[in-house]
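Intended use. Records like the one below are meant for learning the mapping from a protein sequence to its folded structure. Do not use them to infer anything beyond what is encoded.
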Amino acid sequence: MIKFFRKIRQKTLTENKFGKYLTYAIGEIILVVIGILIALSINNWNENRKSENQLNTIYNEVEQNLKSDLSNIDDVIKRYEQLELRLEKFITEGYSNIPLDSINVTNYLDFTTIPMDINSFIAFDIQDKGIGLLKTYNDFNTSGNKDLTNEIIQFYNIDESLNLVLDKLKEESFNNIKYIEQFSWYSHHMTMKYNPKTIAFFAKSKIFKNKVVTYRLIAIENFLPLLRYYKESATTLLEKIETAN
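Structure written out for the chain above:
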C-alpha cells in the first residue's frame, strides 16, 4: 500500500513538474511572439517614417519646380500678349493700308515684325523633376497625403496639352519658313535686310495673311489660355503644398 501511494506521489510530482515546464514553455513562446510583434511594429514604423521622409522630399522638389515655373511664366505670357496685339493689328487693319513708298531701309524692321513673328515661337518648358519622382514613388498606400499626391499628378496632366499645342506651333512656324523659301528675297528676309519685293509681298499677299490668322489661332487662342491656366493652377497648388509642409 505504501509503495502504491509513493507511486501516486511520484506521478503527481512528475505531472506537476511537466505542468510547470509546459507553463514556462508557453510563457517563453508568448514572450518571443510579443518580441517579434514589437520588432515588426518598430520596423513598420521606421519604414513608414522613411517613406514619409521620401515623399516630403518629393513634395519639396515639386514645390521648387512650381516656384521656378511661376518665376518664368509671367514673361512668357507677357510676350504672347504683346504678340497678340501685333497679330490683331495686322489682321484687322492689314499692312496693305501702309503706303509702300513710306517703307525704307530705316523703318524696314518695324514693318517686318509680323513676318518674323510667325516664323518663330516662344517656348515654355515645365520643370518636371518633381512630378517624375512622384510618378515613380510606389508607396502611396502606407504614407503621405494621398489627396495632395493625387492633386499634383492630376495638375501635371496639363503638361501634355501644353506640349501638344507647342509642338503644333513649332510645326506651323517651320512650315511658314518653308513657304517663303521659294521666293528670291528669302535670304534677305531671314537676315533682316531691306528688299522692296519683300515689302510688297507681305503687304499684298492674301496667303500670307491667312498664315498669320492660322498662327494666331494656335498661339493666341490655344497656347496663351493654357499658359494662363497653368499659372493660376500652379499658384493654387503651390499654396497647398506649402501649407502641407
